[in-house]
Amino acid sequence: MISIEELRNMQSVPKTIVITGANSGIGFEAAKFLATKGAHVIMGVRSLVRGDEALARIEEEVDRPKVTLLTLDLSSLKSIEAFVKDVKKHVESVDVLINNAGIMAVKEGKTQDGFERQLGVNHLGHFALTAQLFDHLSLKARIVNVSSQAHLMGSFDFSNLQYENGGYKPFKAYAQSKLANITFTHALNARLKDKSIQAITVHPGVAKTGLFGRKEGVFVFRVLSPIFGVFAQPASVGALPTIAAAIHPSVRADELLGPKEKGHRGYLTQNDRINPHALDKKNQNELWTRSEALTQVTFPL
Ligand SMILES: NC(=O)c1ccc[n+]([C@@H]2O[C@H](COP(=O)([O-])OP(=O)(O)OC[C@H]3O[C@@H](n4cnc5c(N)ncnc54)[C@H](OP(=O)(O)O)[C@@H]3O)[C@@H](O)[C@H]2O)c1
To answer: How far apart are CA 164 and CA 96, in angstroms?
Structure first.
């Protein structure tokens, strides 16, 4: 377990950290925390207007933060490629890549490249981003994939991965995409054996963020959003597993970090329950092959 107090008191943090979906919710709180600690944070945002607003909020609390705002739309392979080029122009190497951006239980739709929207933004976009940024990662870099406890409800049907044959259900598709996040972590670590780069998964518990009330979200989640808000923890607390995965020295590849268990206030758990589908080598390899084929991006491994 990781003590939250120890995490908050950590002084030495990695130099360069890229965060996707950094203008809102968990990504924003992680960006602010890491900027407070002196890291150079590259905030990937799909709207520069919302990005500027987020940066202004960071500047209110952090003295001269080292933050770079770059546009990134994970629903477009073209935008991902341009973002990677921009990152490479701005920094010599990246110490931590936090694959955080996400959408939840939205109505059926497609990304600009024709992928089912939740798999496309939550998994395929991050897969393509990680692959293209891979040769710019530092020797001991960490890749943090933000999943969800919803992954426990997910399963893969590779014959209908993008609901080509119908049967789309918004939450089922979300659960599959979050299962893909954690399966990607394990598939990646299996290929990283002789390297010191590590992939880690986190889940934030239930945190009060923009995720529940989005206009693209299905009616029931938008209506229930204020109720979730009452029970949810603040986004700053939901961001702690992500922050720990990015900077805590005790974190190891393949771990799933989450919020504290009942009775252990002030701690984060390091070995939360993982859906066996994510640990299945066949699933890992199939997801990897399909992701490379769909995105037309290959890892330099
Ligand atoms: N909050 C929770 O309780 C909870 C629980 C489990 C897992 N999670 C996970 O936590 C992560 C962060 O979500 P959050 O709760 O912080 O929600 P949030 O406040 O809605 O933040 C999501 C972020 O993702 C960005 N985003 C959405 N679509 C994008 C796209 N196509 N390209 C680039 N960025 C995009 C959003 O940008 P815009 O502002 O421009 O839309 C926003 O910055 C997600 O992966 C989510 O699945 C959250």
So the answer is: 35
Which is nearest to 101 in space by CA: 141, 130, 81?
130
Question: Ligand 1: which residue has its CA nearest to atom 1?
Answer: 207
List the domain boundaries for the chain: 2-295
For the Cβ of 255 lying below 6 angstroms from any atom of ligand 1, the answer is: no
Q: How far is the CA of 79 from the centre of ligand 1 (A)?
A: 17
The answer to whether 23 and 99 have CB atoms below 8 angstroms apart is no
pLDDT in tens, 41-96: 999 999 999 999 999 999 999 999 999 999 999 999 999 999 999 999 999 999 99
Task: Report the predicted TM-score, pTM, of the whole model to 2 decimal places.
Answer: 0.97
Q: Which of helix, strand or coil describes residue 114?
A: coil
Instruction: Could you please state the CATH topology (level 3) that the domain comprising 2-295 is classified under.
Output: Rossmann fold (3.40.50)
Can you read off the two tokens belonging to residue 99?
């694959």
Q: How many CA atoms lie within 13 A of 88 on its CB side?
A: 13
Ligand 1 pocket test, candidate residues 58, 103, 149, 181, most atoms within 8 A of CB: 103
Place of tokens 């500047």: 59
